[in-house]
Amino acid sequence: MSEQKDTVGVIGVGWVGLVTAACFAELGHPVIARDILQEKVDALSKGDVAIHEPGLDDLIRRNAERLTFTTDMDELLGGARLLFVCVDTPPTYSGDADLSRVRAVVQELPEDSDHVLIMKSTVPAGTGESIRRDMPGLSYVSCPEFLKEGTAVKDFMNPDRVVVGADAGDEGAAAAVESLYRPLGGEILRTDVASAEMIKLASNAFLATKISFINEIANVCEEVGADVGQVAKGMGLDERIGTSFLRAGIGYGGSCFPKDVSALKMLAGNTGYHFQLLTAVIEVNELQKRRVVGKLEKHLGSLIGKRVALLGLAFKPDTDDMREASSLVLAARLQGEGAEVVAYDPVASERAAELLGSVEMATSATEALEGADAAVLVTEWGEFAELDWAAAAGRMNRALIVDGRNFLDPKALTEAGFEYEGIGQTVSSPRPAAAS
Ligand code: UGA
């Protein structure tokens, strides 16, 4: 007879909650997932997954029998002891994390509960301690989430590490969380709650710092005629540095890095400590998107009346997430300069259209490029590598491209008739023949 696995409770079925619910169901756990939005619960109960995350809808369909979606907190509390909190913690006007949704969940829990509250939402260090103070009867574990959008299912099933933070008295609760993750392999790191909270913020802030660092190196490469791709490779071969997150481009976006870097900066600031490095990381990221305008002006002069095609709108490929996408800033900036902006994204167009009201949406890259004075590759979707660029050059008013992700082959694009601008690379012209 197969062993009955613990029921897992999930509170908040946004992107993190849904991946967590689907993956635990795949591991054989009955899962009860609760959200306050009835439409979302109804759609998920029918197997309709509104977000684009590779492999997720398959997982939900395959494990439908083990997955219950509900709006009823009592149903959740009655059926599951281990409760993963996966509600969002967006930034407030002050840049701090907004904990109102986390607080609302905690208020719904019974005070003498034998439930274990497992915090997956990204919260500032100190949050766990304050929840434990308010609810001394509740077991509390911090288990930060390290999934990447676009590869979340794969990341969940093959974690680099699982961090389980618990304070004195909650050892049993921590052990229960560890045993949920043990079948996945990967190192399980036991820490106290505050350290687990800091690991999450520090990891995202460090990755964002790597990106802003390489973007500044790219900007210097442009000045001195070096190629940032070669520089990043040469740096990354030093195993203390590593090759990942050294792709120069037009900056990081998404629902995590901008919010978490700011939240860590504010967390430090609130204690009286000025985290200077993060101030620079944020500023570099802001300015990086704007450099595209200068690159276009270098070739076109004034952008007034120029038609610019944005290729890719989502904050990165394989997601339809538009939160803090570089495309939003870029579109507004280009329109601010008087350009006419047309845009295309393979999956995010619908979401993008709601945010980019005055931008014309094309239904294909080819349509976006028709008659354009320039193209900007904003998001490195695979299909852009497959495009017939020579044909595209023929249909554009001027075959100029700014490759904001250094994704395309400059030589191939130049041969296809394009004036090519990347980030941190100078497309070399042949050395003049020596005078005889
Ligand atoms: C990020 C972290 O990578 C995850 O570990 C973390 O769990 C997640 O935030 C979170 O806190 O929930 P994600 O936002 O999905 O994941 O995206 P990343 O793949 O990390 O990319 C973030 C941004 O950085 C994208 O805009 C991407 O284009 C940019 N990026 C990434 C670069 O500009 N250069 C690089 O070398 C890498």
- Quote the average pLDDT: 94
Label the overall shape. globular
Radius of gyration: 24 Å
* Helix share bin: 40-55%
Major sheet: arrangement of strands: 3-2-1-4-5-6
Secondary-structure-derived class: alpha/beta
Contiguous uncertain segments of 5+ residues: none
What's the total helix number?
Answer: 18
Q: Largest beta sheet, briefly?
A: 6 strands, parallel
Cα separation of the termini:
88 Å
Bound ligands: uridine-5'-diphosphate-glucuronic acid
Number of strands: 14
**What fraction of residues sit in β-strands?**
5-15%
Describe the structure.
The chain has helices at 15-26, 38-45, 56-62, 73-79, 100-108, 127-134, 152-157, 171-181, 193-224, 228-236, 257-270, 276-300, 326-336, 349-355, 365-369, 382-386, 389-395, 410-415; strands spanning 8-11, 31-34, 67-70, 82-85, 116-119, 139-142, 161-165, 187-191, 307-311, 340-344, 360-361, 374-377, 400-403, 419-421. The chain has 436 residues and is of the alpha/beta class. The strands form 3 sheets. A 6-stranded parallel sheet has the order 3-2-1-4-5-6, with helices on both faces. Strand 1 (8-11), helix 1 (15-26) and strand 2 (31-34) form a beta-alpha-beta unit. The N and C termini lie far apart (88 Å). Bound molecules: uridine-5'-diphosphate-glucuronic acid (UGA). Uridine-5'-diphosphate-glucuronic acid is lined by residues 122, 145-149, 204, 207, 211, 245-247, 249, 252-254, 256-257, 260, 315-316. The site of uridine-5'-diphosphate-glucuronic acid has 21 residues, from helix 9 and helix 11.
